């Protein structure tokens, strides 16, 4: 009900924008006629029109001027160019939802000339409705606006509201970039399986199902990860030997340093956009 009769505009029509559009339409939260998507490539607009029945344009200001809710979903590096292209139309929507990594609310509000900003950080599993999004909102966003934001972001999977923008850079490092860490870990496990003698196809299947099953089991059990790990670690056994080597190699420390490096980069991206 939060999105009834609301026109939703998209500035940028890439993977994450399409994931949101798909989730909203397939979930019967909106009708295709409620969406107008802007993209500099006419062929991309035609593709989305054929696929979802939405309206498309190559003019950012056209999408912004028609939108009640505007989703800012371009690359963060081109935010300044997009602001300039709006020609004042950024003030038109009653709510602006940004999924741009590192671009701060102050930059968004000033660039759009709009005080009603939601800043959000989804992740790539949103493409199959299994993502998680951390978001926050300016004080000017009403309860109705927050309900609209929840409906939009819920189309991507789970969502968590935070009352301070500082958590967005943290979320960018932990959950936004998180799938890349998981994929690297999976790749390493698959390579190890091939080294042992499995075919790559069999190693991939073993690892994919092991990771998926482990996550689902952890979600269902509610137990601490250390307890779950202990359940498969017999004294003097194979798991104990493998875990010893992982700890000896500094796995925890490397992961912590990697996440912190991603966090610092997110903060730096925000500062670069403010210049």
Provide an overview of this structure.
The protein has 275 residues and is of the alpha/beta class. It folds into two domains: 8-164, 3-Layer(aba) Sandwich (Rossmann fold), CATH 3.40.50.720; 178-269, ProC C-terminal domain-like fold. Helices cover 55% and strands 13% of the residues. The protein is built from twelve helices and eight strands. The protein has helices spanning 15-26, 42-52, 60-66, 79-85, 105-112, 143-154, 166-176, 178-196, 200-221, 225-231, 238-248, 251-274, and strands spanning 8-11, 35-38, 55-57, 69-72, 95-98, 117-121, 131-137, 157-161. It has an eight-stranded mixed β-sheet with strand order 3-2-1-4-5-6-7-8, with helices on both faces. Strand 4 (69-72), helix 4 (79-85) and strand 5 form a beta-alpha-beta unit. Helix 7 (166-176) packs across helix 12 (251-274) and helix 8 (178-196) crosses helix 9. The longest helix has 24 residues, at 251-274. It is elongated, with a radius of gyration of 21 Å. 33% of the residues are buried. The mean pLDDT is 94.
> What is the strand tally?
8
- CATH hierarchy, class of the largest domain: Alpha Beta
Radius of gyration computed on alpha carbons: 21 Å
| Poorly predicted residue ranges | none
Named at the architecture level, the CATH assignment of the largest domain is 3-Layer(aba) Sandwich
Number of separate structural domains: 2
N-to-C SSE series? EHEHEHEHEHEEHEHHHHHH
Spatial gap, N to C terminus = 40 Å
Number of helices: 12
What's the CATH superfamily of the largest domain, by name? NAD(P)-binding Rossmann-like Domain
């Amino acid at each position: 009900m939060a999105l009834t009769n609301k026109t939703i505009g998209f500035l940028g029509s890439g993977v994450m924008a399409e994931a949101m559009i798909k989730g909203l339409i397939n979930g019967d939260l909106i009708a295709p006629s409620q969406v107008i998507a802007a993209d500099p490539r006419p062929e991309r607009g035609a593709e989305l029109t054929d696929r979802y029945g939405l309206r498309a344009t190559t003019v950012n200001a056209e999408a912004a001027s028609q939108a009640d809710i505007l989703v800012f979903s371009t690359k963060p590096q081109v935010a300044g160019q997009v602001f300039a292209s709006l020609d004042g139309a950024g003030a038109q929507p009653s709510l602006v939802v940004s999924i741009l990594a590192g671009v701060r609310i102050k930059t968004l509000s000033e660039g759009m000339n709009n005080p009603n900003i939601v800043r959000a950080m989804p992740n790539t599993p949103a493409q199959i409705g299994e993502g998680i999004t951390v978001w926050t909102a300016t004080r000017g966003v009403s309860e109705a606006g927050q309900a609209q934001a929840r409906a939009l972001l819920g189309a991507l999977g789970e969502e968590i509201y935070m009352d301070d923008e500082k958590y967005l850079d943290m979320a960018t490092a932990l959950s936004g970039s998180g799938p890349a860490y998981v994929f690297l870990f999976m790749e390493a496990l698959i390579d190890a399986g091939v080294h042992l003698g499995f075919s790559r196809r069999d190693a991939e299947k073993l690892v994919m199902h092991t990771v998926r099953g482990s996550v689902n089991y952890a979600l269902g059990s509610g137990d601490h990860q250390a307890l779950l790990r202990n359940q498969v670690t017999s004294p003097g056994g194979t798991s104990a030997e493998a875990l010893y080597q992982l700890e000896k190699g500094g796995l925890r420390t490397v992961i912590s340093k990697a996440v912190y490096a991603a966090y610092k980069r997110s903060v730096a991206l925000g500062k670069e956009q403010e210049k």
